[in-house]
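My main concern about presentation is that the manuscript never shows what a single data entry looks like. An entry of this sort, consisting of the sequence and the corresponding backbone structure tokens, reads as follows:
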Amino acid sequence: MLNNLDITMTATIRPEVINLTLKSFFKRFLHQFDSTRLIINIDPIGDESHTVDDVILVCKRYFKTIIVNTPKTASFPKAVKWCWEQVESEYFLHLEDDWLLKKIINKDLVLKLMCDDTIKSIRFFLSRNSKFNLIDESYCYSNAFSLNPSIMRKDFIEDLLLRFDINLDPEKQFSDIDSNSNSKIKFILYGEKSDGYFTIDIGTKWRKFLKFEKPNISLSKTKSWNRKALSPRNVKDFINYKIHMFYWEHILT
């Protein structure tokens, strides 16, 4: 059985959020592996009261081995591509820095599922599994390839890298892969059809507080967040963010 796992993470400068993400995944999944290695791209955008070094210090709480890229300009597509190019383990966990794992993931079940070579990714869904109706006796199928928190097969990602376009949204540019009509490609959801919300997005309130917006990556020259010009921070947004973070920190303790 596989006991080493690479974790790829696209990140920005927000150590408090990243800490909560990593804590949740270690407590509910990653502690089951003998060896884990973090591959992280930290884009130079985020909370101006912190630095890239603050993010790295957080990562060192959880990983002995860290491969870090700190580009001079922010680009989400380039971040994804760089991270995937560094993967060495047969399977890996793809993350962004603002996802929190709500439920326990069974390592042995994940590895058992990946013994089926047609399964290219196992998605820890951000919504209810029942949202997708395609299901058989063995698997609950995802609708398409996704960058939600997922276990991905390295050799499949290597094929995607051959046609990776750094000017397009990393997820949308591979929407042409039709797992429904290709018996050799399956994208599945972890868990049963009745399961819901294995992961949640904990970054939305942070972005709202600091006045960041997501552009359409494929259409915009900007490949990362935009900060709203001359938009003052709102006390209500700050309080909502802090309560949100305190709640999940308490749940994980």
About this structure: The chain has a mean pLDDT of 88.
